[in-house]
Design brief:
Layout (H helix, E strand, L loop, with lengths): L6 E6 L5 E6 L5 E5 L4 E6 L27 E2 L21 E2 L14 E7 L13 E9 L5 E9 L7 E7 L2 E3 L6 E4 L6 E3 L5 E3 L6 E2 L4 E5 L5 E6 L4 E8 L3 E6 L1 H7 L11 E15 L4 E12 L9 H6 L1
The structure holds 6-O-phosphono-alpha-D-glucopyranose.
The site of 6-O-phosphono-alpha-D-glucopyranose (G6P) has 7 residues, from strand 19.
Length: 313
């Protein structure tokens, strides 16, 4: 049987919001909404959903979408007078018709480019002008690639600083059966303890209660191993030295309006980020941060975070 051709399609998503669907020949797919440049779905070639999206998520601007991969910019977390995780996840982005070329883009052909320029009225939240470009790409093998490019276009000669995250919500079978490798023994700021700087011992990170940590200066590769599904997500991040790990657990889940009471069992956020040392851009300068996520069978031994082994057995 001949394989279907890869395609990119614009269509209406939840609540009539515009979305783009990217599909590869072997069946994997990605969906991204113009609202927030928010990736809401990533499926493997068997059609299995790999991202978590809450059944209670509103698709009603100006509310955030709960799940998928929200983009946090110009800051991760809340600051005085600033809303939590910045505002670009609550703005309408546009399709970028002629994006500047990206290096290393020959591993895929299926992609869409989005762009955000600060809308009028947002100056009061953050008095900077910038161009934010996001490429969402799907490789023939089904890997999801996200590339962010942020450029300072201030005309007043002033630099700006920011923090950033791809706040990815992964779908897992049971949070108690999941472990994360690649972060153990690294320092983290514990958001549940007023950002106290802590470190743990152990071979991996497992979960039995609420967690909200910003790991700092982490390796570029992180693996999320789902024992029950025998599935491993491998994250390869560049330009983002930190990583947030979040699960609200039962009590906090009940307090979040757009999150189901029991949904914490089926999700884990692992968010490549820039947090501890904010980035500074002068006018004309651009920052690039990229993330490649693969989903592979869990057939490698604990402690061997060697991507070649993970990907090729
Ligand atoms: O609810 P959001 O604004 O999407 O943020 C999701 C979560 O991110 C963080 O890690 C915060 O510490 C949490 O308090 C917050 O609930």
């Amino acid at each position: 049987m001949a394989m279907a051709k890869p395609y990119i399609q614009q269509c209406k998503g939840n609540n009539g919001l515009d979305k783009y669907v990217l599909k590869e020949a072997r069946g994997s797919s990605v969906e991204v909404y113009l609202y927030g440049a928010h990736v809401t779905s990533w499926k493997n070639d068997r059609g299995e959903e790999l991202l978590f999206l809450s059944r209670k998520s509103l698709f009603e601007p100006p509310n955030r979408i709960r799940g998928g991969i929200p983009i946090c910019f110009p800051q991760v977390g809340g600051l005085e007078n600033y809303e939590n995780h910045g505002f670009v996840r609550k703005l309408f982005w546009a399709i970028d018709q002629s994006p500047p070329p990206l290096e290393e883009s020959n591993s895929y052909r299926t992609f869409v480019d989005l762009v955000l320029k600060p809308p009028e009225g947002f100056y009061k939240y953050w008095p900077q002008t910038y161009e934010f470009r996001l490429r969402v790409a799907l490789t023939p093998g089904g890997d999801l690639i996200l590339v962010s490019r942020i450029r300072n276009i201030n005309r007043n000669g002033k630099p700006f600083t920011f923090t950033f995250a791809f706040y990815a919500y992964f779908s897992v079978s049971d949070i108690c059966e999941v472990r994360v490798e690649g972060l153990e023994t690294y320092y983290y700021l514990d958001n549940l303890k007023n950002k106290e700087r802590c470190t743990d011992q152990g071979d991996s990170l497992t979960f039995e209660s609420e967690i909200d940590r910003s790991y700092v200066g982490t390796p570029n590769k992180i693996a999320i191993i789902d024992h029950e599904k025998r599935r491993t997500y491998v994250l390869w991040k560049e330009g983002m030295p930190d990583a947030v790990v979040w699960n609200p657990w039962d009590k906090k889940a009940k307090a979040i309006a757009d999150f189901g009471d029991d949904e914490y069992k089926r999700m884990l956020c692992v968010a490549p980020a820039v947090i501890e040392e904010p980035l500074k851009l002068k006018p004309g300068e651009e920052w690039t941060g990229s993330l490649v996520i693969s989903c592979v069978p869990s057939s490698y031994c604990s402690g061997e975070l060697d991507p070649k082994k993970i990907l090729h057995g």
